[in-house]
């Protein structure tokens, strides 16, 4: 390839990524290694790496190094995505780790929990969705046992809570709120991120014929997820 050296470095790395030679999660050589390989200055390598970051092909992790980025899940804003199906469709191995499972009364100081419980109890479920053995999303979910009493006996070893609900409960209304946060120490540990790393948060509630079903907060590393909305002209 002719042209500036930083473009050739970028093209060489991009070719390795797109061919599968360097799969998602593969550690990219340190800048000092690339400087030696290409016989160039750090500025030249840094320019190539910055272009790869901007293209979403690599991610830099503080104190850990630079790695090939995992493909993002593109979720339509108006749909409820099934994380398991999205990960499997990308050819990655999916797993769900249930961290805690608690049957409890709603917090009386939380109007949202009281409304969700509707006079009954709540099933609180915390877990982590993994893609190819790496944390993909942290999930904290509350389910109304009054709306879905059978979930109290559900086994989530094979089917995660979200997928179980999609299969068993015909929701009729949903509300999603999307925000950006910096990972606190606990979330960073569970997601294998640096404390303060950028994350995307989806808070979602669903109803069935006006009855509250579930409330869930899903926290994704910023590099792993985005939301897509496509619009057309009004009638």
UniProtKB/TrEMBL annotation:
Which CDD domains does this one have? WHTH_GntR
Q: Does the keyword Transcription regulation apply?
A: yes
State the Gene Ontology BP annotations: L-histidine metabolic process; negative regulation of DNA-templated transcription
GO MF annotations for this entry? DNA binding; DNA-binding transcription factor activity
Entries under SUPFAM superfamilies matching the protein: Chorismate lyase-like, Winged helix' DNA-binding domain
Question: What keyword terms does UniProt attach to this protein?
Answer: DNA-binding, Transcription, Transcription regulation
Residues forming the HTH gntR-type domain are 3-71
Q: Which InterPro entries match?
A: Bact_HTH_transcr_reg, Chorismate_lyase_/UTRA_dom_sf, His_ut_repres, Tscrpt_reg_HTH_GntR, UTRA, WH-like_DNA-bd_sf, WH_DNA-bd_sf
* Protein name from the UniProt record: Histidine utilization repressor
| Organism whose genome encodes this protein | Caulobacter vibrioides (strain NA1000 / CB15N) (Caulobacter crescentus)
């Amino acid at each position: 390839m002719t042209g500036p050296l930083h473009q050739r470095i970028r093209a060489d790395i991009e070719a390795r990524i797109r061919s599968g030679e360097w799969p998602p999660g593969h550690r990219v050589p340190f800048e000092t290694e690339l400087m030696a390989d290409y016989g160039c200055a750090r500025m030249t390598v840094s320019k190539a790496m910055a272009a790869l970051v901007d293209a979403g092909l690599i991610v830099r992790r503080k104190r850990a190094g630079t790695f090939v980025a995992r493909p993002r899940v593109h979720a339509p804003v108006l749909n409820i995505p099934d994380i398991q199906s999205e990960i499997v469709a990308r050819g990655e191995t999916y797993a769900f780790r249930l961290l805690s499972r608690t049957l409890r009364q709603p917090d009386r100081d939380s109007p949202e929990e009281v409304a969700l419980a509707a006079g009954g109890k709540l099933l609180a479920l915390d877990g982590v969705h993994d893609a190819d053995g790496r944390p993909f999303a942290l999930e904290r979910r509350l389910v109304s046992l009054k709306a879905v009493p059978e979930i109290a006996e559900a086994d989530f070893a094979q089917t995660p809570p979200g997928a179980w609900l999609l299969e068993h409960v015909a929701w009729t209304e949903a509300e999603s709120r999307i925000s950006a946060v910096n990972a606190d120490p606990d979330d960073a540990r569970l997601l294998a991120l640096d404390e303060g790393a950028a994350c995307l948060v989806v808070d979602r509630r669903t109803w069935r014929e006006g009855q509250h079903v579930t409330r869930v907060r899903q926290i994704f590393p910023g590099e792993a997820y985005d939301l897509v909305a496509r619009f057309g002209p009004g009638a």
